[in-house]
Amino acid sequence: MSHSADKNIIVWGDSILKGVVFDENDGKYKVIKDNSISSFAQITGFNVKNNAYFGMTSTKALNRISKSIDKMITDKENIVIIEFGGNDCDFNWREIAENPDLPHQPKTSIESFKSTLQNMIDMFRKKGVTPVLMNLPPLEPERYFNWVSKGLNRDNILHWLGDVARIYRWQEAYNNAVEWVSRQMSCKMIDIREGFLLSKNYSSQICTDGMHPNEKGHKKILESMLEFNF
Question: Please, are residues 87 and 57 in contact by the beta-carbon 8 Å criterion?
Fold first, then answer.
């Protein structure tokens, strides 16, 4: 991979690329200093602007991007990394726990998620910015279930889910949607999921909440980013 400072990399994503981990000692979320994006910027020397936000969905981001896209353009080669899906596929677990027999919708439907990513790619390309998608790290379903059902009726949530592994499959469908968009739009994609899946013990790279990669997980993401040909 050619390292040069004449590449301008913009990141749009959620808490994963923000570098958010759950600190077991403090019992709260924090941003780690040596997260995948800051380490990537340090190693490559690229000029990196990180616009990843905790809780960000693709639809919220599209709105922000359309308002600020003209400010992002520089005379350098502009590349944008797009990483969404983790919040898009999430549910209101409290509502599910209270009404497990009603139908419940995720924050973003999978159809809307696909079209939002496609719109985002189009928007960047029209401005001469090269979009690069990133797929999703896998969830650790047992931990995730324990996390989202804290203080709620676990039996009701499980009743609605059918089985705990459904959480994993559901998130995988959104991961597959990212990969589908990548093929449809002939858009390059950084595959971070494969590294996790091929690990001997991927759960050791995921926080206690079952969704955020921990420090080890960020090293795994960094490896995939450094292997990618920007």
Answer: yes
Q: Pairing state of beta strands 7-13 and 47-50?
A: parallel
Q: Which residues pair with 206 in a beta bridge?
A: 213
What's the mean per-residue pLDDT of the chain?
A: 94
Alpha helices (H) along 90-164:
93-98, 110-126, 141-148, 154-161
Summarize pLDDT for 178-220 with one digit per residue, the tens. 999 999 999 999 999 999 999 999 999 999 999 999 999 999 9
Asked whether residue 1 is domain-assigned, the answer is no
**Residue 119 burial by Cβ neighbours in a 10 Å radius (0-12, 13-18, 19+):** middle
Residue at 2 is within a domain? no
Q: Is 205 part of a structural domain of the chain? A: yes
Q: Which two tokens stand for residue 204?
A: 């050791």
Query: For residue 130, what is the enclosing H or E element?
Result: strand 130-134
The verdict on pTM exceeding 0.90 is: yes
| Domain span holding position 112 | 7-227
In a domain, 63, yes or no: yes
